[in-house]
Amino acid sequence: FPTCTATGANIMPSVNFTVKWPNGELIQYYSPSTVIYEYLSKGHSYPAIQFLTLAEDGLSAASERVRVRYGFACSSAMDSLSTIKRQANLFALKDEDQIEITEMHNE
């Protein structure tokens, strides 16, 4: 998975989280900061509209933490967000469709 790096080393504790989409597909995404735990929780299901908002807010906050600490934002966080939004469009989600976070772990 992508990481935000400075001089070749991981710069912050990161989190990989797995999303179970309404069709049962499991996809793993990357957050460059543990701040994502303030937005999403393992084992929790969210209505699609809420999940998309929380994912955007959490990944934006994670990228911002990298920027504040190291002077550059983490494009990998925005890549994850872009992929999440693309998946939501592909699945033609309804606001009430449930999205589950099946796994979250630090890297």
Task: Give a short overview.
With 107 residues, this protein is of the alpha+beta class. It is built from 2 helices and 6 strands. The radius of gyration is 13 Å and the shape is globular.
Structure in words:
With 107 residues, this protein is α+β, with helices and mostly antiparallel strands. Helices cover 36% and strands 26% of the residues. It has 2 helices and 6 strands, in the order βββββααβ. It has helices at 48-70, 75-90, and strands spanning 5-6, 9-10, 15-20, 26-31, 45-47, 98-106. The strands form 2 sheets. A 4-stranded antiparallel sheet has the order 4-3-6-5, covered by helices on one side. Helix 1 (48-70) runs antiparallel to helix 2 (75-90). The radius of gyration is 13 Å and the shape is globular. The relative contact order is 0.28.
N→C terminal distance: 10 Å
Rg on CA atoms, Å: 13 Å
Give the overall average pLDDT.
89
Estimate the helix proportion, in percent.
Answer: 25-40%
Total number of beta strands: 6
Strand order of the largest sheet: 4-3-6-5
Main pleated sheet? 4 strands, antiparallel
**Topology pattern, helix = H, strand = E:** EEEEEHHE
* Global shape: globular
Jot down its keywords.
107 residues; alpha+beta; 4-stranded antiparallel sheet; two-stranded antiparallel sheet
Break the fold down into its secondary structure elements and pairings:
Blueprint: E1 5-6, E2 9-10, E3 15-20, E4 26-31, E5 45-47, H1 48-70, H2 75-90, E6 98-106
Antiparallel strand pairs: 1-2, 3-4, 3-6, 5-6
